[in-house]
Amino acid sequence: MLSVALLLFSLSIPAVYCGSHSLQYRIALVSVPGYDVPQYSVVMYIDGLQYGRYNSDTQCAQALAPSLNALSEHIENQTKYAQEYEVWQRHRLNFLMGFFNKSKGDTHIYQRKCACELHEDGTIGGYEEIAFDGKEFFIFDKERVVYVPVTQEAVMVSHLWNIRYDPTDSKVYVENDCIENLKLYLPIISTDLEKKVPPKVKVSSSESESGTKLHCRVYGFYPRDVEVKWIKNGRDEIHSEEAAQILPNPDGTYQIRVSVGVTPEEGATYSCHIDHSSLETPLVVPFEPSKRSILYIIIPVSAALLLLLLLFLRAQQFKKGDPFVLLAFERETQSEQPVPIV
Ligand SMILES: *[C@@H]1O[C@H](CO)[C@@H](O)[C@H](O)[C@H]1NC(C)=O
Ligand SMILES: *[C@@H]1O[C@H](CO)[C@@H](O)[C@H](O)[C@H]1NC(C)=O
């Protein structure tokens, strides 16, 4: 239910038309039973692409492009602002849950989408939408400076909402702070569009009960789009059962780890193939199985040591004369005795 709600609300990415730019913040606050504090997150988009984020775990505003990190003082200010904003949004979720008699024993979600637009002719625009439990609830009318209810439920609470949460603040934010930020970011990120940082790659393997796994870690690359796959014998792609996620690094670059399960075969070769816009040709990094042979030594040796230890313990008990162990031991030793050749 929760993921459906998130999906519904995130479908409409603002159209980016030529010469016009937008800065959008998507906020989600999710109260999950069993957690005291609802999870809060903000993602910032410029012209529809992710450029920043903040969440209640890190409590830090983070730029997702290397160039934006040059704005360290601005990012510090954004962190402070985001922390205050988080508290205000928590009030709003609590207020809605209280008003609609929603139980804390269920999952509830409050989402807010807020954007400003800078048009080619210099005019500005912007909008704000609020959703509760996956349904659109209020739309902000910037001209009349009022939150307009969208559903029947929202009509019930809209009067109180407009009194408690002054819509003037939203107008000021969209028309001033948001536009200022957009004007600050645009010239900086335009250099990112040409900037490319090639990936670094590490391949490794791990053994578990379910078998051997090969891992390909690709990191430190920019921009975000990358293709990583495991190839067997130079031609067959091995499909990964886990969906690999591209994760942002604090320095604005990205990383991903693609793991596949394999059954070791005599003579088979495995390699990780990486394609990224910074590379002229795809990178091919072979997996060298030499490191695995250490495991082949460690496992039998530790098994042998364990066996010796068990035998020693059994011998100790045997000395103490535990009748049951004694019997068992005797029976075993008897059966192990070679049949005398007459
Ligand atoms: C950060 O905030 C302080 C205090 O509000 C202000 O004086 C300063 O100009 C801001 N710096 C930037 C880069 O926005
Ligand atoms: C919430 O509960 C109170 C008291 O039980 C009731 O008066 C009120 O109408 C309820 N509100 C909603 C939105 O159902």
Automatic annotation (TrEMBL):
<protein>
    <submittedName>
        <fullName>Major histocompatibility complex class I-related gene protein</fullName>
    </submittedName>
</protein>
<feature type="domain" description="Ig-like">
    <location>
        <begin position="199"/>
        <end position="284"/>
    </location>
</feature>
<dbReference type="InterPro" id="IPR037055">
    <property type="entry name" value="MHC_I-like_Ag-recog_sf"/>
</dbReference>
<dbReference type="Pfam" id="PF07654">
    <property type="entry name" value="C1-set"/>
</dbReference>
<keyword id="KW-1003">Cell membrane</keyword>
<keyword id="KW-1133">Transmembrane helix</keyword>
<dbReference type="GO" id="GO:0006955">
    <property type="term" value="P:immune response"/>
</dbReference>
<dbReference type="InterPro" id="IPR003597">
    <property type="entry name" value="Ig_C1-set"/>
</dbReference>
<dbReference type="InterPro" id="IPR036179">
    <property type="entry name" value="Ig-like_dom_sf"/>
</dbReference>
<keyword id="KW-0325">Glycoprotein</keyword>
<dbReference type="InterPro" id="IPR050208">
    <property type="entry name" value="MHC_class-I_related"/>
</dbReference>
<dbReference type="InterPro" id="IPR001039">
    <property type="entry name" value="MHC_I_a_a1/a2"/>
</dbReference>
<dbReference type="InterPro" id="IPR007110">
    <property type="entry name" value="Ig-like_dom"/>
</dbReference>
<feature type="transmembrane region" description="Helical">
    <location>
        <begin position="294"/>
        <end position="313"/>
    </location>
</feature>
<dbReference type="GO" id="GO:0009897">
    <property type="term" value="C:external side of plasma membrane"/>
</dbReference>
<dbReference type="GO" id="GO:0005615">
    <property type="term" value="C:extracellular space"/>
</dbReference>
<keyword id="KW-1015">Disulfide bond</keyword>
<comment type="similarity">
    <text>Belongs to the MHC class I family.</text>
</comment>
<dbReference type="InterPro" id="IPR011161">
    <property type="entry name" value="MHC_I-like_Ag-recog"/>
</dbReference>
<keyword id="KW-0812">Transmembrane</keyword>
<dbReference type="InterPro" id="IPR013783">
    <property type="entry name" value="Ig-like_fold"/>
</dbReference>
<dbReference type="InterPro" id="IPR011162">
    <property type="entry name" value="MHC_I/II-like_Ag-recog"/>
</dbReference>
<keyword id="KW-0472">Membrane</keyword>
<keyword id="KW-0732">Signal</keyword>
<dbReference type="Pfam" id="PF00129">
    <property type="entry name" value="MHC_I"/>
</dbReference>
<feature type="signal peptide">
    <location>
        <begin position="1"/>
        <end position="18"/>
    </location>
</feature>
